[in-house]
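Support reply, case 0932

Customer input (verbatim):
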Amino acid sequence: MYMLLLERVNKNIGVILLVLVGSLSWSLTMVKSGLIYSFGMGFWGPNGHDGVWHIALINHLSRGSLEMPIFAGEPIRNYHIGFDLVLAVVHKITSIPAHTLYFQILPPILAVLVGVLTYRFVSVWRKSRTQAFWATFFVYFAGDFGWVVTLFRDGVIGGESLFWAQQAISTLINPPFALSLVLILLGMILLLRLQNRFRIYEVGFTILIFGLLAQIKVYAWLLVMGGLGLVVLFGIIHARKFVLKSNLLVVLLGSFLLGAALLWLTGKSVRQLVVFQPFWFLETMMAVSDRVGWDRFYGAMMNYKTGGILIKLILAYLVAFVIFFVGNMGTRLIGLWGMVKSKAWRNFSEIDIFLLMIALLGIVLPMTILQAGTPWNTIQFFYYSLFVFVIYSGIFVGKLIEEKKLKKWAIIFLILITIPTTVSTLFLHYLPMRPPAKISNEEMEALMFLEKQPDGVVLTYPFDRYKAELAVNNPPRPLYLYESTAYVSAFSKKSVFIEDEVNLDITGFNWRQRRDYAKILFDTLDQAWARQFLDENNIRYLYLALSQTPVFDQRFRLGGEQLGIKNIFENEEIAIYEVKN
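Our regenerated output:
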């Protein structure tokens, strides 16, 4: 048994090393965040906002509550909670802290699963270990050409999201996206098994996997439904050629009904969450300085648009789209080139059609629609297009190697122009010793104290970006001076009156009036109004950062006795008050 295992390890040593190195590189974007350092708990990259939001949801769901943790008194809606619900269950069973699960435990597991399942899917589908190996390589390390632009423009290698889309290295900072890839890969492996047989439990499991995508990542569910629908249509038209049509029709109907039911449980229809606004990503890519930022080109686009100069307008947007597409694709272009060169469309299988429909929809949808409130979110459709071309890039490179048409120097060159995005993103954003954001040790002490208090709604000072910028410059910045985040809810495990305005926008809450009232409370001298406000909104705790500079003062103009509150905790940075009955 031992010798057999050793033989298998030796046989697959290249794949094992690739998965380990790839998983390590992915995990480095996560595992340093959420740990305690000399300055407190650190957060690298977007984890100071996105990660904290998920921790708030996980802790809230683990208490059996479906209340919006950052908008007390309202239910969670318009958000896919599947990923957070899974971690909430694990947290409840194991008592492992949510932030440890989110930052240290789950990321390596997801990274390994994506790599292993990619290798398994391609090796079963294409019957080629070489093609599977290179598909796995591109899954972990594919990057855009943003680094070329920043190298010539600024003299540095960077630019991961210069063309808007995040690249492979950032997969885990969006863990629902990573989990959706796991489910899609599992589903495609099952589709391969359904090609020549019908087994009810395999069909049922496939329906469950694809249906659950609606609560893991709704973008993925919509794309998968489109892909399955086209395969079923082709199966009906070409019945002799496509053997999956009956199985897939059952899978399509079942996963659509399951997904629609899951969406109905937590919010509006997809139609209510999107707006029609073609080419917003192309315009902002050219206009915004931290993207391509080509001012003259953007100015020309707008002039042609307002002037109704149709021919020049079409050409300008076509050029912008080519820049968007080629820039984001990077070396994934080799997969597209391979399909064109080999005329692969002549022998497309059901899986080919399924994948390419996902890729096509992933390109078309963000070019036409935006998410209401947070328009940039629909770029996530395009992430799945990039994933599809990752697979085809690996297949084509592997095929060239098998046919001995790719020399060693060409392979080395391909690797060298693929990995700069991964290397630069890690070194610029995730490996530096000082993170951009933190929760200080003193504030962690306050949050742990608040967690132990009886349940009740917490009121925090509304985030003021202008004052926050004036208050502190050097990182790591306290989260209350970094961004509007869900950190008080996340680490106190209490509902907050209003917090994390970004996610309130994403989920479609009308939060501005509540924020205005909270600000009035701090400034008012009307004792009766202030007391009525606290009572009517069931505010039990007031969580305030003590002023670090005169410009950022989280204090009331009324005194504690006038407000009817008592101090229950105070250290150098934080004061917590409880509203008297």
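We compared this against your earlier run and they match. Two observations from our side: The mean pLDDT is 91. Residues 98-126 form the longest helix (29 residues). Please reopen the case if you see a mismatch on your end.
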